[in-house]
Amino acid sequence: MVTRLPVPTDEPAPEVLEVLALLARCLGDGIEALDAGAALLLRERADRLLAAFSTAGLEINLAA
Q1: What is the C-alpha to C-alpha distance for residues 2 and 21, in angstroms, rounded to an integer?
Q2: How many CA atoms lie within 13 A of 48 on its CB side?
Q3: Residue 38: pLDDT over 70
Q4: Band of the pLDDT at 18, cuts 50, 70, 90?
């Protein structure tokens, strides 16, 4: 089964762009590159995203 998520056609909100920039920085430089506030924001948004996936019936498996 393939689940497709809709892609918005509008410009993303500024806060979305901020989170994407934080995520890119975290992935490129590691979490230690973020200050405490940015790391907390990223964690909160990631938790909300995972909760939305769960509510939609999607499962996230962390395969090692």
Answers
A1: 28
A2: 8
A3: yes
A4: confident
